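re: the backbone from monday

yeah here it is again, tokenized this time
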């Protein structure tokens, strides 16, 4: 039993078509996926499995350490807005990253029984492909870092090999995870760059506080707030690097595991 899958994952063009040739089935025909093509392949397993125990533990700890960050108020509106705007962009990125981790977690919960409680993505997809039966699942690599997943819920419900919920829910989490990963990888570099610009302009911001000629302790408090916020921005950069590293690994796993829908023919 196999599913029809349209689209191809190789390359980085804007859109792809899964064309028929000697290696690929006719579009619209059920793709039979032999057991040998969906058996465990260590190359597709989580990259984190190959990290030395201490490195893996440290990396996982860094993932948990990523949190939202609020900047202190600065008594010069233009400087305060610069920090607040940057914090908002960073916090939105953290939220997307958190949502990505949640989507992956929820996806894996649907395969805990078959994987003895250790649901590696590749194994989960191997099981999902079988569950899909003859349903059509469309997967397109829209850009270097974005996989687009689409399907007809009615088609899946009618043609899947198990109860529809055991297919539709993980497909939904899979689709959402691809979107979250794409969003993170698209925006993280730009946010990181803009933070660098602000950090490098610390002296300029201090001058703005001095030029404002604030009364009493406001000037001192303003300087302290700028220094504190710069420290927070530097922590944001560290966290963004962690977010990018996790998301790049996750996207690679999603990309490789998605090839199982094609019987590894792409």
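seq for it, each position gets an aa:
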């Amino acid at each position: 039993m196999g599913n029809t899958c349209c689209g191809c994952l190789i390359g980085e063009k804007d859109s792809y078509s899964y064309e028929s040739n000697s290696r690929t089935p006719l579009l619209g025909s059920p793709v039979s996926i032999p057991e040998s093509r969906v058996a465990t392949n260590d190359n597709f397993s989580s990259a984190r499995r190959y990290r030395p125990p201490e490195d893996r533990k440290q990396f996982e700890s860094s993932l948990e350490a990523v949190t939202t960050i609020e900047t202190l108020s600065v008594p010069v509106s233009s400087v305060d807005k610069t920090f607040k705007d940057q914090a908002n962009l960073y916090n939105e990125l953290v939220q997307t990253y958190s949502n990505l981790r949640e989507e992956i977690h929820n996806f894996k919960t649907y395969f805990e029984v078959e994987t003895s409680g250790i649901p590696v993505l590749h194994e989960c997809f191997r099981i999902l492909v079988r569950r899909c039966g003859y349903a059509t699942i469309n997967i397109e690599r829209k850009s270097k870092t974005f996989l687009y997943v689409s399907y007809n819920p009615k088609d899946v419900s009618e043609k899947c090999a198990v109860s529809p919920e055991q297919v539709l829910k993980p497909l939904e989490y899979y689709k959402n995870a691809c979107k979250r990963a794409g969003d993170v990888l698209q925006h993280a570099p730009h946010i990181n760059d803009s933070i660098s610009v602000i950090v490098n302009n610390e002296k300029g911001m201090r001058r703005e506080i001095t030029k404002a000629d604030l009364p009493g302790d406001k000037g001192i408090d303003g300087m302290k707030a700028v220094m504190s916020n710069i420290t927070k921005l530097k922590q944001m950069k560290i966290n963004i690097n962690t977010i990018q590293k996790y998301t790049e690994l996750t996207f690679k796993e999603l990309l490789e595991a998605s090839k199982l829908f094609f019987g590894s023919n792409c």
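Confidence is low (pLDDT under 50) at residues 10-50. Strands lie at 4-6, 136-143, 146-151.
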